[in-house]
């Protein structure tokens, strides 16, 4: 099954350089799309009533709406440019979506995530302040400009020195030459577009196991399916090796949350522990921040492998989160999926897969312990049995 999924996904997953190119060509249009969809969602769900936090969390989730309402297409050679356009109807409502947009759904999702990750703080502040004061067009016009948002201008070649009369003549010839080239390019692009395969051909070629129609949902729910077999093996191995580190981190988070919420009842502690290994609690109406819904406290840590063994360490104060380090398109997406999967698996093993070890009960009976004492008492007893693994508090 994994091999079939990989075979179906591979043709659709654009190379990283293509994703960077698509983002570069469509930054302005993508900005317009994100602002428009954010404006709609904020009004639809009254997201401003509880302050800016709800709007901040909606920024990355808005990409699902962008994928549903916009199409990304790539013009064939020699033009080689990407276009982002509003769909006539939602993707769910289209009986026969355009084959080109069908092929680039995952690329659109990834470049949208890259853009919203880059601009999350700015978009959150902007939409919180302006949504109820201005319409989408006004916000787009004011925000979607400048070097950060607009595509960078192409480098200009310095013209050779010549007389003023020859300059004028050369400019005229250059203008006519460019016009002719543009005309030829448009005609060639039109011919290439006319050769685009039908939806039936696309389905025969790509949808051999029915996974394409559910590609985005599958990635959101089970991102590990996007990994190579060797990477999945690393995830399984790493999750086992990280149990001690993850246990200490998770118990520290649980202690902090219990103290902040003044939770002393065992039932309350049980509810707290039940959501310790996920980012968005089960039953929540919010979209998970990351595929697979890993615990968000994992953002504060980094994983490394030395001498064949995985370990987890807290990031230094002021260090950039690994999830925020890809503003130039350099994020290794699979590496982040592996990180999130290892932490999630290890956490669930510690918290949920050992009925004889009840963290909530242990917290209740050791309510006077500090975070360090709680982590040491619970984790050293069950998951950090090797004294050589003992470390300072995470």
Automatic annotation (TrEMBL):
Compositionally biased intervals (Basic and acidic residues): 185-194
Location of the region described as Disordered in the Swiss-Prot/TrEMBL record: 147-197
Signal peptide segment: 1-15
Tree of life domain: Eukaryota
Chain intervals with Polar residues compositional bias: 161-175
Name recorded for this polypeptide: Uncharacterized protein
Organism, as annotated: Prymnesium parvum
Keyword terms: Signal
């Amino acid at each position: 099954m994994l091999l079939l999924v990989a075979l179906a996904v591979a043709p659709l997953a654009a190379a990283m350089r293509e994703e960077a190119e698509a983002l570069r060509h469509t930054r302005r249009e993508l900005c317009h799309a994100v602002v428009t969809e954010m404006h709609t969602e904020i009004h639809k769900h009254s997201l401003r009533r509880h302050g800016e936090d709800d709007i901040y969390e909606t920024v990355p989730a808005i990409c699902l709406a962008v994928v549903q309402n916009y199409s990304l297409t790539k013009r064939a050679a020699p033009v080689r440019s990407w276009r982002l356009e509003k769909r006539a109807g939602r993707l769910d409502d289209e009986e026969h979506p355009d084959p080109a947009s069908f092929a680039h759904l995952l690329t659109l999702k990834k470049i949208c995530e890259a853009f919203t990750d880059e601009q999350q703080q700015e978009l959150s502040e902007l939409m919180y302040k302006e949504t109820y004061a201005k319409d989408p067009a006004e916000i787009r016009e004011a925000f979607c400009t400048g070097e950060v948002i607009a595509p960078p201008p192409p480098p200009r070649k310095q013209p050779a020195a010549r007389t003023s009369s020859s300059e004028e003549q050369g400019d005229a010839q250059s203008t006519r030459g460019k016009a002719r080239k543009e005309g030829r390019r448009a005609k060639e692009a039109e011919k290439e577009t006319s050769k685009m395969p039908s939806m039936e051909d696309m389905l025969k070629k790509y949808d051999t196991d029915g996974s394409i129609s559910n590609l985005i949902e599958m990635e959101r729910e089970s991102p590990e399916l996007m990994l190579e077999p060797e990477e999945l093996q690393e995830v399984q191995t790493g999750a086992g090796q990280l149990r001690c580190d993850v246990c200490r981190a998770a118990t520290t988070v649980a202690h902090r949350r219990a103290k902040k919420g003044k939770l002393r009842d065992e039932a309350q502690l049980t509810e707290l522990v039940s959501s310790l290994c996920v980012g968005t609690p089960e039953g929540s109406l919010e979209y998970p921040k990351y595929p697979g819904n890993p615990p968000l406290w994992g953002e504060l840590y980094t994983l490394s492998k030395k001498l064949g063994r995985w370990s987890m360490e807290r990031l230094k104060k002021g260090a950039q989160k690994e999830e925020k380090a890809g503003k130039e398109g350099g994020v290794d997406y699979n590496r982040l999926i592996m990180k999130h999967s290892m932490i999630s698996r290890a956490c669930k093993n510690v918290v949920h897969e050992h009925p004889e070890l009840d963290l909530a009960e242990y917290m209740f009976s050791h309510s006077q312990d500090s975070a360090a004492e709680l982590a040491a008492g619970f984790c050293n007893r069950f998951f950090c049995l090797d004294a050589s693994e003992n470390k300072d508090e995470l």
